[in-house]
Sequence to fold (253 residues):
Amino acid sequence: MLIDTHCHLDALEFAPDRAGVVARARAAGVSTIVVPGITEATFAETVATAREYDCRLALGMHPIYLAEHQESHLALLRDWVEREKPVAIGEIGLDFFIPGLDAARQWELFIAQLKIARDFDLPVLLHIRRAQDQVLKALRQVGVTGGIAHAFNGSRQQADAFIKLGFKLGFGGALTYSRALNIRRLAAELPLEAIVLETDAPDMPPEWISQERNEPAQLPRIATALAELRGMTLEQLAFATGINAAAILNFHT
Fold:
């Protein structure tokens, strides 16, 4: 039961062979793919992609596209959520890594989307770069029903804080790099019930295709790498992380 909890299947990089990407993922044993939205302008395409390829849908406004987001888009996001019933609000969060992104405006947008998640009783898919503590502060300010800290790369103390708030932590291709010591240590030592798998395809490729496009068919090899770190079989890891993902996103596998 391999579940890719974060794959941008609607991305332009997949336009030439999207059906093939999905077919390869299914053939590799990936039973479920979650497709998060990133801007209001692309919600229609995200929805259509998720529907056409029988994927799970999330909708949100990504912080790195801050220049594209308008205040009016928050009301439109509510409308989309009401109509399409996504499994989560996302991808949302804070990014203090990319220069030039207004921190105050990011915060306002993030808080507003957390309130939408709270109002619809939905989990959130979190984008977090150099903002672990600030995201935790926001989550404590606006209580939501948990979610996934995507591409987690914080400290063990921060990981424990997310877990205490009801969150799962997403691990993907980054853990396959031997130099990613912190991520590999966390992936090996965190409670198994706190971990879910993801690819973030077409981004964040694993080590063996480091200069190529990532895709969800890589999830079994990523899962195998994680299983080896934890001293488990692939089957054990796939089952446990699949249960975790289905539980946090409230769907049946």
